[in-house]
């Protein structure tokens, strides 16, 4: 990874007095570790009339980018299943209107237009900095399992391949990864490498207090970070 | 001179001063004085108290400076503020102190005193164990600063277990239990508020301590988490380290913003730390006692393939279930082993794993079944002996022991039952085979051994101790 790019992202957030990275910033950060994120373009303020959509393929998902909005879906900040330029234009207009109504005070940085990614096995990879033990990594099967069943495992970072594999194996939801009722087994070695990358990120970047890829879709032959959160230490530097 | 480094002088001091010594029988400082004599402490003892000229026929000094000699360890049994007053004065001849006294961080008005204590010690280069602790019991070098009378709390014999604990009351009761169980102890450190010496210092010491074969940690909280993990890793690389964590309800990250922060209570992080360090966590008081008993008996197990032998079918099945839960491999018997056994065991025996000898079991059947298993790849055995089998005699103990020593593999005895059964425990224990009264306890103990085996294998592979 290019640590200069990483430092720029972090410093920019801190200089603006923020602690939450925007989704675009968080994804740019993990991309430096080659964690796959959906192809996307950022639509700034008035550009939506002339959107250059050559680099990404439909269908699309449109998400608001705002430092004032943490839960995008609740305020109408996510619209999916967009097929073409007209769909996108209309969606931008509708989203602007909804946001104006629901969160009038929110500052809008722009709109993230992402390629829709097909559903894989949902997992969550998190990292947090414990005051006594330093960086800790969490892995869990995603969606309802993490909230309802608390099906998660923890290890201290940094961790190796064997520890990452063990984090998966100790979950009740492990069969979801090895193939269950006819579904195919996912690429667990690749998944282990992503866990190790998250471990590396929080170990290397001391400003990070919490990081979370949720959900990460895992496939037979790949992974995709659908949403990512990064929260920096709250103390002033 | 001992072979212990760093804070090792606490365990083998050439001289001990008791600050606030009293001639009154039953007073804490007098109990310590008596216990030091009783354990045969070989160095000089200096009672210090301006009120007395002699205590128990020993010269009593008015102050630490009056001793006029180097003092390795000064034990304080005085009110907190008095401790500070004395340490602020001339104490250049002191190397380390054990502060038994409470009234420091654990109470609101003692917080400042403890801060001050820390500063004074750093300034003067004095090492501190405590405050709010019992100090040291060292069966190897003969030091006992525990202020509990031996009539109430027995002292364990010399052995390979060393215990590190924040809680003084835990130190007392585990020492008493170990004495009663006949488990030998090397060193016990009760470090209380750990203003200076903490678990990491002690683990560093015990890692290289040839008298310590295995370590038990009783943990309420750890402040220097990473130092703890590093020191525990070094120690676990050389010998088994087991831990019990109390106070599991503690909340995790304050005001966490993500699932990750919200999902993990502090206990999950402690568990992650234990795994990283190769520490085997035990559950509950019974669990830790059983872990000590099995580690006292056996050093090593090569894998996790467990053979279950029983003379009662039902208990064999519940044991196999428990093994699964603990990740032990209840490997099926090979067909050649089944053939070998079918001609030699009682007619109705179940030739699988578990091997059920049924109530027709004879002493020799245990020998036959156990030897067949150990010759054919099983790493350890849990052997259930139910004395309802009419043909069984006390001789079965010797027959099992023969195979155990010949193959040098762990045999854990499970023997539930009443008065007669319990009276037979002694026979197994005399041969060094630990006995458990429930299938769950036997399996849990087996899992401690195999857990340790995994840690050791990881280290041999150069892959760190973590499990």
Automatic annotation (TrEMBL), chain A:
PANTHER family registered for this protein in UniProt: 3-HYDROXYPROPIONATE--COA LIGASE [ADP-FORMING] (PTHR43334:SF1), ACETATE--COA LIGASE [ADP-FORMING] (PTHR43334)
UniProt EC number: 6.2.1.13
Highest taxon, organism lineage: Archaea
One example GO MF annotation: ATP binding
Keywords, in A-Z order: ATP-binding, Ligase, Nucleotide-binding
Protein's name according to its UniProt entry: acetate--CoA ligase (ADP-forming)
InterPro entries (UniProt xref): Acyl-CoA_Synth/Transferase (IPR051538), ATP_grasp_subdomain_1 (IPR013815)
Catalysed conversion reaction: acetate + ATP + CoA = acetyl-CoA + ADP + phosphate
UniProt organism field: Methanolobus vulcani
One Pfam family matching this protein: ATP-grasp_5
Coiled coil: none
From TrEMBL, chain B:
Pfam families per UniProt: CoA_binding_2, Ligase_CoA_2, Succ_CoA_lig
Residue ranges constituting the CoA-binding domain according to the UniProt record: 10-104
Source species of the chain: Methanolobus vulcani
Keyword annotations from UniProtKB, A to Z: ATP-binding, Ligase, Nucleotide-binding
Gene3D superfamilies per UniProt: NAD(P)-binding Rossmann-like Domain (3.40.50.720), Succinyl-CoA synthetase domains (3.40.50.261)
Protein name (record): acetate--CoA ligase (ADP-forming)
Catalytic reaction annotation: acetate + ATP + CoA = acetyl-CoA + ADP + phosphate
InterPro entries, A to Z: Acyl-CoA_Synth/Transferase, CoA-bd, Ligase_CoA_dom, NAD(P)-bd_dom_sf, Succ_CoA_lig_flav_dom, Succinyl-CoA_synth-like
Coiled-coil annotated residue ranges, if any: none
UniProt keyword Cytoplasm present: no
Record carries keyword RNA-binding: no
Recorded superkingdom: Archaea
GO molecular-function terms, A-Z: acetate-CoA ligase (ADP-forming) activity; ATP binding
Enzyme Commission numbers on file: 6.2.1.13
